[in-house]
Amino acid sequence: MDMRGDQEEALVRHGSQYTHPVSSITTVSVDFASASDLAPTLIRLEADALLICIPGGAVKFASQKLLIDAAIVARVRLIVPSEYVADIMSEQYGRFPDAVVGEKRQVRHYLEENLGEDDQGSRSETKWVSVNGGPFWDMWFPKFFDLENRKATIYGPGTNPTCWTTRATVARAILHLLTHYNPEDPYHLLNRPHFIAGVTPPLTMNAVVSALETQSANLGESGNWVVEQLPMEPIREEASKALERGDHRAALRNLTLLSQFDAEGWQGRAADFSRKGLSNEMLGVESVDVEAMVRNELEKNWASRNRRGWRLL
What is the reported pTM? Predict the structure, then answer.
């Protein structure tokens, strides 16, 4: 990608049949296991920025190191590692098994050690920045709030503050970084993690339920919302047992719930990025209040129901 954000290529593995859904993004095949292929490819593409977007469990340090080293050789100006959804250096995140969330911490350490300032004060031409907005609102909202049946599923008391952000908002924050890139870094944007909140904090599940009830009424939809409230203690127990028996998938689900909703335990404290300080203003992110977010979801659902109800004569 170039720094204007208007020339983009997607690197894919040799033999991949993947075609990017956005027609302006060209796919380029490369051998991710070969440094001798990666660096020349990035040089040929004259890449300014390297955005790594792969699922968490697929983040393996060895392959990421090859990619980062190739970017340094190719004098890529900015690397954005595949983080996006969590404070990966928090104590809470450290409980997640690498087998299911990937070796993101090792990648972060490597970036810090190789792209930061050394003892002589010199800096690599290549910089790094991570952007983390918590779970993606557009993926998580439907998991807990059933608009069709007016049912909400809440874990714990529903009071734990968290940060959720849409994928589009994360993308806009990264585009802001690219278009405002300055190697002199006068605003201290580079070589550091950034935390953003797409929904105005504090966001809690109880606040979402309240917004659903208010905005449903404002849109003329009658009927009460059913709220199923599930205790956290069984989740804590199941997470511990799953870790003990090495069932990483089960552990991941329960640890994720704890990390977001465990208001009474230590695990949920990492969900509120405002504790660390938000970079919304620095990255051009305008948060949206929960009432507006919920109204938008209800309006989309209403429009979808109407479309499904159409009959062609």
Answer: 0.91
